[in-house]
């Protein structure tokens, strides 16, 4: 057997230049090389690539040509392994193949980019700049020049007695904490006899708005058996002027429901993640959103107050789950193209919101999007006031109480003040941008 000259093996591809010199610099296999090859002997040949074509290259040569140095032997063997005819014949082929591969890769990349862009560019009609027009915080909510304290019987037939501002303050149902957080509460101290209404608070902004960006930061929200809270906006002559329920639920729900109420002739498309919209009378692209469409007919009346609803699955959006993480932000954008709503948990609030310089284009897909495809937004929504309330039982609480997991009846729950321990809004601020 011929004596073989050992060559170091680094598992590298071999080209003219530095990597070849590195290979020639070693005379014995390295430890890592032996581990890779599961052997203490270096491999006899290596597959390498040059101009897109693979070749086997000897890593040792017989000592039958002792007059040649090791480096010269290796260089000779390397050149012999790459016949010029083969290189010339393969060059054209591989250049075309490379171009085809690059073209396919480029088309695939563009396709993926388009799909990603469609899914993440957010709703239409977003302005480049939003200006702060109203900021409500702290004692602003206790100012009768800015907010009305509703005292009429509850239109949704709840078992509540809404309080005037002086009465709410006197009963400690409306106050500002030392840290500036505004609290609006349900009475959680008084045991009640049957058929007695419990004291609560409902406030409505003096000012009304036509379109805009509305951002509400809540530290906590009401929840509990029989409790039906809502943060919403509403126009005149309900339901003609429209209603947007941004944050609403009942009892011990753990997810939020977004709902619109309108007059006749307003619907939203079925399905979720791609509601189309209209521009100049023509349907345009869909808008992806995170929550799930539950009902599609927005038209409401005294006989059917369901509205069109999109429901969350994120348990941080409502009730106890919302409160445990110090609440968060609800932002809704209302323009002629539709109504978009975002929810941000406390540790996910965008910096631009905190800086009072909101940039909805950077927020990604909304939680819900109500399209103008089957609903003339400008016709069905106008002159909206802002509303925060907590009612009890009523049109939503009574029929859902039996399936809520709460004990007894809704009427019995009203009597026990312990059920209202967590029936409190804690408001950091509400900001309106246009």
UniProtKB/TrEMBL annotation:
List residues of the GH16 domain: 111-434
- What single Pfam family name could you report for this chain, choosing any that match? GH16_XgeA
| CDD domains xrefs | GH16_fungal_Lam16A_glucanase (cd02181)
User: Source organism's superkingdom?
Assistant: Eukaryota
Record-linked InterPro entries? Beta-glucanase-like, ConA-like_dom_sf, Glycosyl_Hydrlase_16
- Which PANTHER family would you find in this protein's record? GLYCOSIDASE C21B10.07-RELATED, GLYCOSYL HYDROLASE-RELATED
Supply the name of the protein. GH16 domain-containing protein
Organism lineage string: Eukaryota, Fungi, Dikarya, Basidiomycota, Agaricomycotina
């Amino acid at each position: 057997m011929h004596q073989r000259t050992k060559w170091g093996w680094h598992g590298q591809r071999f080209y003219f230049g530095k990597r070849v010199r590195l290979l020639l610099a070693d005379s014995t296999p390295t430890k890592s090389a032996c581990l890779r090859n599961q052997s203490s002997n270096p491999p006899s040949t290596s597959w390498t690539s040059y101009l897109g074509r693979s070749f086997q290259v000897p890593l040792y040569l017989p000592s039958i040509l002792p007059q040649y140095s090791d480096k010269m032997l290796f260089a000779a063997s390397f050149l012999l392994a790459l016949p010029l005819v083969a290189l010339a014949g393969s060059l054209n082929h591989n250049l075309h193949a490379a171009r085809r591969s690059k073209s396919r890769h480029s088309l695939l990349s563009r396709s993926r980019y388009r799909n990603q862009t469609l899914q993440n560019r957010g709703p239409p009609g977003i302005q480049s700049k939003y200006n702060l027009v109203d900021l409500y915080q702290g004692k602003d909510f206790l100012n009768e020049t800015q907010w009305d304290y509703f005292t009429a019987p509850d239109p949704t037939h709840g078992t509540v007695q809404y309080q005037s501002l002086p009465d709410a303050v006197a009963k400690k149902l409306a106050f500002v904490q030392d840290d500036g957080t505004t609290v609006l509460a349900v009475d959680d101290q008084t045991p009640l006899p049957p058929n007695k209404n419990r004291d609560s608070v409902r406030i409505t902004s003096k000012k009304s708005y036509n379109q805009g960006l509305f951002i509400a930061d809540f530290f906590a929200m009401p929840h509990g058996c029989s409790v039906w809270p809502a943060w919403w906006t509403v126009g005149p002559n309900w339901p003609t002027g429209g209603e947007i329920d941004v944050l609403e639920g009942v009892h011990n729900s753990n997810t939020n429901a977004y709902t619109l109420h309108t007059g006749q002739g307003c619907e939203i498309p079925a399905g979720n993640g791609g509601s189309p919209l209209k521009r100049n009378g023509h349907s345009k692209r869909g808008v992806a959103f995170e929550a799930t469409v539950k009902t599609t007919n927005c038209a409401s009346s005294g006989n059917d107050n369901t509205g069109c609803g999109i429901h969350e699955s994120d348990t941080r959006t409502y009730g106890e789950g919302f409160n445990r993480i110090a609440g968060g932000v609800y932002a809704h954008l209302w323009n002629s193209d539709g109504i978009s709503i975002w929810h941000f948990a406390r540790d996910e609030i965008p910096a631009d919101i905190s800086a009072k310089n909101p940039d909805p284009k950077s927020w990604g897909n909304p939680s819900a999007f109500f399209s103008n495809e089957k609903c003339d937004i400008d016709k069905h929504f106008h002159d909206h006031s802002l509303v925060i309330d907590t009612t009890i039982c009523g049109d939503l609480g009574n029929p859902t109480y039996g399936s809520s997991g709460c004990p007894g009846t809704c009427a019995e729950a009203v009597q026990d003040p312990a059920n209202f321990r967590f029936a409190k809004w804690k408001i950091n601020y509400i900001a309106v941008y246009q």
